[in-house]
Specification:
Blueprint (H helix, E strand, L loop, with lengths): L2 E3 L2 E3 L4 E3 L6 E3 L5 H4 L19 H5 L74 H4 L13 H9 L10 H13 L8 E6 L7 H15 L4 E5 L19 H6 L7 H5 L3 E2 L4 E4 L5 H4 L4 H14 L2 E5 L7 H9 L4 E5 L2 H16 L3 H5 L2 E5 L10 H9 L4 E5 L3 H4 L11 H16 L8
Parallel strand pairs: 5-9, 5-10, 6-8, 6-9, 10-11, 11-12
Antiparallel strand pairs: 1-2, 3-4, 7-8
Helix pairs in contact: 5-16, 6-16, 10-11
Length: 439
């Protein structure tokens, strides 16, 4: 070990030279510490430590020369310079209002339209791609009109191999227009139409059945006629009975009727798909059918039917009549052809006006049954003129032997004039019904 003292290296020995006197001082003496200078530096050279990788690390080394973690070469990071390019300045030129607009090239007027040009005609100038439209290139398939109905027009359509179609005959067109009026569509709930008069025996029940059959025959929805006569009505006898149920059964079983199938088991249906709900056959029970009972029946009928006709009794002051008129969207007044029958029908209108049903009177339709006695002795034109001053429309119901019998009505075998009158009555009633509920 070499000791550097004041810049002079001395050899290791038994003593140390005194720097101030130059004498050798005994190192073993106790004055050695006192003789040492205040500043003393010692330089020691150590051997370089070499790290040797174990054999197990060398066995799994990826490279042939293992990395010596004891000697890591640190490289000085290089400086990367980035050149920033100044974006070029974009100049916007403003065109003054005095700039000249280059006009489109002149054409002959046929380059952009094919008007007044026959198919296949070549344009004098080149056409643009927009001229190749579907209307120009695709052959239109014209829909063939439906085959005409009625006499001569149908014959001409057949002999010309469907080339000449003159359409339906005037008679057929009138029939289809009438059917369209009867098949009027509604928005909302059911429509109620009571048929009433103050006098019995004028054909009120027959008119109710005829009206219902004409409606059901032309319409696709459901139509029902309810016999609300508290004095033993006969509406159910106008069709073939299919059940013994009555309005009383509807009232009793109302909580259990949850579907149309449940309701349909209590009505009778004829060939026109008109459903009829019978009244009580026992006069003692029929008197018990009151306003509340009718409301129960009407509420259920409104759930399953679009049109509800009500065959009312002659007692217009009965509570059932009040409930019927409160639901009515229109009314049909039935009158006979005699003097007293026409007068009582007119008094029915007066009673309605006096009790707050003036709107129903203005919208009413009067059906004059010409099959009653005395019709041939009176002037029907005068009766019609009287009612036209009070109601919306008048319809004559002609005499028909099947109706006069007072039994089951077969709508298909009625006289053509009778069916035409029933259809006219149905169309007039539909004309007066609102499309929307409450309108």
């Amino acid at each position: 070990m070499a000791i550097k003292r004041n810049g002079t290296n001395e050899s290791d020995g038994a003593g140390v030279h005194d720097g101030s006197t130059g004498e050798l001082v005994d190192a073993s003496s106790g004055d050695l510490a006192a003789s040492l200078p205040e500043s003393l530096s010692i330089a020691i050279s150590l051997p370089t430590t070499v790290h040797a990788a174990p054999e197990d690390e060398l066995a799994v080394a990826i490279v042939e020369i293992p990395v010596n973690p004891g000697a890591v070469e640190v490289t000085q990071p290089t400086t990367t310079s980035i050149d920033v390019v100044q974006p070029a300045t974009t100049s916007i030129s403003v065109v003054s209002e005095e700039s000249v607009i280059v006009p489109l090239p002149e054409s002959d007027g046929k380059n952009y339209t094919r008007r007044n040009r026959r198919d296949g005609e070549v344009s004098t100038t080149p056409e643009t791609a927009s001229m190749l439209t579907a209307d120009r290139l695709i052959e239109k398939n014209h829909k063939r009109r439906t085959a005409p109905e009625g006499g001569w027009n149908a014959f001409v359509y057949a002999v010309t191999f469907h080339l000449v179609n003159r359409g339906d005959s005037p008679k057929v067109r009138a029939r289809k227009e009438l059917e369209a009026r009867i098949d009027k569509q509604f928005v909302g709930g059911a429509r109620f139409v009571p048929v009433l008069t103050r006098k019995g025996g004028v054909g009120k029940t027959t008119v109710t059945a005829l009206l219902g059959m004409a409606l059901a025959d032309a319409r696709e929805d459901r139509v029902i006629a309810v016999d609300a006569n508290p004095d033993r009505g006969t509406l159910s006898e106008r069709v073939n009975k299919q059940t013994r149920s009555t309005v009383r059964d509807i009232v009793t079983l109302a909580p259990t009727i949850t579907s149309f199938n449940d309701f349909s088991t209590m009505v009778s249906r004829d060939d026109t798909r008109l459903d009829i709900l019978a009244s009580d056959t026992d006069p003692l029970l029929s008197e018990a059918f009151d306003e509340n009972d009718y409301n129960v029946v009407a509420d259920l009928a409104a759930r399953f039917y679009s049109l509800v006709l009500t065959d009312c009794g002659t007692g217009i002051v009965h509570s059932v009549m009040r409930a019927t008129l409160q639901r009515a969207d229109s009314v049909v007044i039935v009158s006979g052809g005699s003097v007293d029958e026409a007068r009582l029908a007119s008094e029915t209108l007066t009673w309605l006006e006096a009790n707050g049903y003036g709107d129903l009177v203005k919208n009413a339709v009067v059906a004059i049954n010409t099959a009653t006695q005395g019709t041939n002795l009176v002037k029907l034109e005068e009766i019609e003129a009287h009612f036209k001053s009070r109601v919306r429309e008048i319809v004559r119901i002609p005499y028909d032997p099947q109706l006069a019998a007072g039994s089951v009505i077969d709508y298909a075998t009625l006289k053509p004039l009778t069916r035409a009158s029933a259809r006219e009555l149905a169309a007039l009633v539909m004309d007066g019904l609102p499309v929307r509920q409450g309108a």
